[in-house]
Specification:
about 375 residues, alpha+beta, 2 domains, elongated
């Protein structure tokens, strides 16, 4: 009987045939055309004693999102439906999957370990989890969650070098500010893994945030609604934002909450390269943010939108994530926020950056800021 395993890879780029060949010395490699309507072509590797077929799904595949949801549900079941840091990190990691490789081995795994070497090499190079024997393994083939519900204490989720280097830079920055941190807080996605919203969507989000913040500050309801409708951008506002903008008499706390959206708004022109973000110790320059968007013009800003470098955005995400942990830890322990960090500023920035980097694939109203 053939044996099977699957790899859940977090990198945007799929493994190349040349990498597979280098990980499978002595094998003959055959790459095929994608099936009709698909963009993922199967690859086969043939040794004298074992045959491997690798099928792939990626984010362009119609069934990937549903498949990943099912895999998260299976992992949750393996964990006994009990949430802890390890399980939470695993579920988030599964959500970041860009490619699923389904591997069929005939007649089965060879005694010499050639196929396992291939699996381990692909997982290590592409931030992969291995699903085998009804269990979830790390790239070193240690049981992260076994079918029995247990795990190997040494098993770790894959972290790419770019993510570890960024984490170290963030910790040095926090140390210089006098902000405490914990080394076990996970790294954010590496350069090879992360995806960003497109520039147009970021500019549209800036427009919506500007208007809801204006309304939170007291702008007349009809005027706030008309700003977006007159430029054809009403749909840029999220469902919750639209509901707020349509309210004639919002609750006081609603007004306060949406007024804070200026801090999330500030992230958007920063991501588009128009302003410096600055440390999260003071509130943003509200007149500058509003004036900049007015000066650019909503339509013009959307039409010319271009994001700054991915690495810069990830640097700020990683730093803000750790800053937010410090703020939450201080609040839980009834202490002042450390290093002069403003809790409201850092929360709004974390929210905006998580949306910008498609954290959990959530849309604006459903973004999480777990620390």
């Amino acid at each position: 009987m053939p044996e099977n395993c699957a790899l859940y890879l977090s990198t945007r780029l799929a493994p190349s045939p040349s990498l597979m060949q280098s990980l499978a010395p002595g094998a003959e490699l055959s790459a095929f055309r994608p099936p009709p309507g698909e963009n993922c072509a199967p690859i086969e590797l043939e040794w004298p004693d074992v045959h491997v077929r690798i099928n792939r799904m990626d984010r362009g595949s119609a069934g990937l999102a549903q498949h990943l949801e099912g895999f998260q549900g299976y992992a949750w079941k393996l964990a006994g439906q009990e949430m802890d840091a390890r399980v939470h990190e695993l579920l988030e990691r599964i959500a970041r999957t860009h490619h699923v490789l389904g591997i069929i081995i005939e007649p089965g795994f060879d005694d010499g370990g050639k196929v396992w070497a291939l699996v381990r090499g692909l997982a290590s190079a592409h931030g992969g989890l291995v699903f085998w024997n009804s269990s979830i393994l790390d790239p070193q083939l240690r049981y992260y969650l076994a079918s029995t519900g247990g795990h190997d204490p040494a098993a770790e989720l894959p972290v790419l070098p770019s993510a570890l280097e960024r984490k170290a830079r963030s910790e040095a920055r926090l140390q210089a500010m006098g902000v405490p941190f914990v080394t076990h807080l996970p790294a954010v996605p590496g350069d090879e893994e992360a995806v960003l919203r497109n520039g147009r969507d970021v500019a549209l989000r800036a427009a919506a945030l500007m208007v809801v913040a204006f309304r939170g500050e007291g702008m007349e309801q009809a005027r706030a609604v008309s700003i977006l409708r007159e430029v054809g951008m009403w749909d840029a506002a999220s469902p919750k934002e639209q509901a707020f903008l349509m309210e004639m008499h919002p609750q006081k706390q609603e007004l306060v909450n949406f007024r804070w959206r200026y801090e999330a708004l500030w992230v958007m022109p920063w991501a588009l390269g128009h302003v410096d973000l600055g440390p999260p110790t003071v509130i943003c320059d509200v007149p500058k943010a509003a004036g900049l968007i007015r000066e650019l013009g909503l339509r013009e800003m959307v039409g010319a939108a271009k994001l700054r470098a991915l690495s810069e955005i990830l640097d700020e995400l990683d730093f803000t994530y750790r800053c937010h942990w410090a703020v939450v830890d201080a609040r839980v322990n009834d202490k002042e926020a450390p290093g002069g960090v403003d809790p409201g500023v850092v929360y709004e920035r974390h929210y905006a950056l998580n949306w910008l980097t498609v954290h959990g694939r959530a849309e604006w109203d459903d973004v999480s800021t777990d620390t």
